Amino acid sequence: MFARFARSAQAGSNFVEIGIADFHSSKTHLITEKGTSSSSKNSRNQRANQRRLLKNNSLLGSFDNLSMREPQVRFGRSGIHAWGVFADEDLTAGDLVLEYRGQLIGNQVCEQREKIYEEARIGSDYMFRIDENQVCDATRLGCMARYINASCEPNCYTQIIRLKGVKKIVIYAKTNISKGDELCYDYKFPLEPKEHLRLKCYCGAASCRGWMNWV
Ligand SMILES: [Zn+2]
Q: pLDDT of the chain along its 215 residues, tens only?
């Protein structure tokens, strides 16, 4: 089976057409002033507000570069597993965090690469399924988003959006996130009935399923 360990987006929300209708919906309320005397906080708030404004502008189709709206994050030793990604500024639920970038491949190439990666013991879990035909492979041509660890009680979630006709994987804040917090989302690897073929989850959450697969 191809893409045994391809990550996938939230069930029931895995495709969002970004358009004018979204502009009038929920996210606009996120443009708020926090009000603080600290200048660093002010500049951070300004950046955050700018990001939200840009996000809303992008919904009108004037932007195609998601990276312009990504907040500050940093790479570091993870409290979950190996290396991870941390917020370098406070984030509000609904904020765009990162785009999961990589190389877009079809199922046939995905199947071939999965074998190559397994034989080379690289691991093939940097694949992210976009839809039934396309997978984003961040193994070799990736970005920092691929290092975000999995959790069963995550502070982020993923969504497939379409920006100017191109499908993109976007990671959003699910909760308010403080500067320094490790970012995580549910990988939702495909259902795997055979226990020995599942990937173990190390998130340590009270509700941990024990596996990064759907079970
Ligand atoms: Zn877990």
A: 456 668 888 654 444 444 333 322 333 222 222 223 344 556 666 666 655 555 544 443 434 566 666 778 999 999 988 899 999 999 999 999 999 999 999 999 999 998 898 888 776 678 999 999 999 999 988 788 999 999 999 999 999 998 888 899 999 999 999 999 999 999 988 888 888 888 889 999 999 999 988 87
Residue 164 is which amino acid?
Answer: K
Span from the CA of 25 to the centroid of ligand 1 (angstroms): 32
Q: Provide φ and ψ at 117, rounded to 5°.
A: -65, -40
How far is ligand 1, taken at its centre, from the CA of residue 81, in Å? 11
Which overall architecture, per CATH, does domain 16-100+147-197 show? Beta Complex (2.170)
Give residue 45 CA to ligand 1 midpoint distance, Å: 32
